Amino acid sequence: MTTIVDDPSVAIARVLRQERSARGWSLADLAERSGVAKATLSKIERAETSPTAVILVRIAGAFDLTLAGFLLRAEGDRDRLCRAADQPVWRDPETGYRRRQIFSRPDHPVEIVEVELPAGRRVTLPASSYARIRQVLWLRSGRLVLEEGADRHELSPGDCLGFGPPAEVVFENPGPDPCTYVVALARE
User: Fold this and answer.
1) Domain boundary, last residue among 51, 75, 99
2) Rounded to whole angstroms, how far apart are CA atoms 41 and 51?
3) Residue 89 sits in a domain of what CATH number?
4) Count of CB atoms situated within 10 Å of the CB of 127
5) pLDDT under 50 in the chain at which residues?
6) For the residues of the chain, what is the DSSP string, one character each?
7) Which of 129, 94, 118 shows the shortest CA–CA distance to 181?
8) Is there a single domain that holds both residue 103 and residue 124?
9) Nearest-angstrom CA–CA distance, 170 and 162
């Protein structure tokens, strides 16, 4: 049975505390490993603020987790059948980036995520978020410019892109409408 969390900030705070405690790390240790300020981590851990996608990726990477793996811990146990009504949604408070976890299980190597990026918005994710995974992005609607290291890709609806080696990735929606894309990823 799926556990849906009413307040994602509380669930994220719980997982951050659990993962940090399991490793015996102080907030300063996590700050050093993640590149996120200790004060910011403290506010997130007390559920006083909701982290951005970039900050969550850095925290997850410090714990040697993907963003999906970190959020999965916050969302609770999942069945093999992921009903649309039970698929957790998380929204970046800074950019409005909306992420719906369509499928993810710790015992399965494939994850599927749907993302909606508002018009005119840009999100940059560090190379660490792509370590030990392979990804394919399929643009469903809108326009998306994706900068992967030195490579620049302009995608139109229906276009599909397989990601290369880990590099910083910039997702930008230059269009007047939101863009929606699906990401399928496999753990290596």
Assistant:
1) 75
2) 9
3) 2.60.120.10
4) 14
5) 1-6
6) -----S-HHHHHHHHHHHHHHHHT--HHHHHHHH---HHHHHHHHTTSSPPPHHHHHHHHHHTT--HHHHHHHHH----SS--GGG--EEE-TTT--EEEEEE--TT-SEEEEEEEE-TT-EEEE-GGGGTTEEEEEEEEES-EEEEETTEEEEE-TT-EEE--SS--EEEE--SSS-EEEEEEEEE-
7) 118
8) yes
9) 15
The phi, psi pair for 155, rounded to 5°, reads -110, 145
What the block records as the tokens of 92 is 């970046």
For 56, the token pair is 């969550």
Cβ-count burial 105-116 (b if 16+ within 10 Å, e if not): eeeeeebbbbbb
Decide: 89 and 99 in contact? Cβ < 8 Å.
Answer: yes
Which residues does residue 99 pair with via DSSP β-bridges, in sequence order? 90, 115
* 69 lies in the same domain as 148: no
Q: What residues make up the domain containing 181? A: 84-187
Q: Dihedral, CA atoms, 150, 35, 161, 66, nearest 10 degrees?
A: 160
Task: Supply the pLDDT for residue 146.
Answer: 97
Mean of the per-residue pLDDT values of the chain = 88
**Residue 76 confidence (pLDDT):** 62
CATH code for position 70? 1.10.260.40
| 19-37 residues labelled b (16+ CB within 10 A) or e (exposed) | bbeeeebebeebbebbebe
Length of the chain in residues, anyone?
Answer: 188
Indicate the number of domains in the chain: 2
